[in-house]
């Protein structure tokens, strides 16, 4: 039993413990107010539990709704002395029980700590007038000063806590800003390194491809066309790298705000593949009108990566592309085995991330993606976008 109680106690949160304490204090106050009511006021016995409850029970709202609790307690303090006579000959001269005074002061303090400033002003003024009017002799002025000091002290605590919270929030915002600047600086460093490592070498490839026909004598037309294709592919890759570097260098710019290829560049992608000497068969059905830019970008990237993988891992193999813009939109890229006259293929599992990247892009727009051997010595990539209609 003790273990069960300890386990239940440990499972309670701080908020739950506070609620339990409020309930216990309310019960204690009521247990004092009811039995002692006959000492201060002439109240019929059947009504004593109700009057005692009006004195003690508003305390239970001190956390949930202190303004409502104060209003109930203040109305009760206004009505009780005017309905029930004070016990004649008693040494206690206040018009309310001690419990009632404690409760209304606690609720006034809670209102000053938590309620809106206009409500605080109304509660303070009403309580001061109530005590000033009903307390005997010169005690009213003393209560007015004491209640004013109580409200002022609670407001001071409230403003100090609020200032600390605002300071903590500002420090958190500054910390987030410092972290954001650190990330931006790291992105800038990565962009600079990428530029130095990749863009420089890509530029050299483009320059060498363009100048090769002039540096090498007796270049045939086929070789010249091949060099031009290499230069065009290099320039396209260099433009994409510069676009990505611009995103990395931008201050908070999102990647989707940068210029990105889409369905309008798919034909150029096919043409560049053919210029590279890759046997390519393309079938396109349907109209891409109505597809979102995000879907168009994914279609382009899947085609781009699939064609690059096929050319790299199965050189010389026939590549068949089937793009359907009907519902569902689908993309299929299949290649046969590499001819014996070409070097053997190197599988994607050798360390590349192309298939992983295609799968992640497809998943981002809710597409179904599959990639693997076709059982005939070739390889097939398939992406299907259900729920999209042209």
From TrEMBL:
The organism encoding this protein is Rhodococcus triatomae
Its transmembrane ranges are 12-34, 54-80, 101-131, 143-161
Cite the source lineage.
Answer: Bacteria, Bacillati, Actinomycetota, Actinomycetes, Mycobacteriales
| A Pfam family | HisKA_3
Query: What residue stretches are annotated with the Signal transduction histidine kinase subgroup 3 dimerisation and phosphoacceptor domain?
Result: 186-251
Q: So which domain of life are we looking at?
A: Bacteria
**Gene Ontology molecular-function annotations:** ATP binding; phosphorelay sensor kinase activity; protein dimerization activity
Q: What class of enzyme is it?
A: transferase
Coiled coil region boundaries: 162-189
UniProt name for this protein: histidine kinase
| Entry EC no(s) | 2.7.13.3
Q: Which reaction does it catalyse?
A: ATP + protein L-histidine = ADP + protein N-phospho-L-histidine
Which key words are in the record? ATP-binding, Coiled coil, Kinase, Membrane, Nucleotide-binding, Phosphoprotein, Transferase, Transmembrane, Transmembrane helix, Two-component regulatory system
GO cellular component annotations of the record:
membrane
This protein's record includes keyword Nucleotide-binding: yes
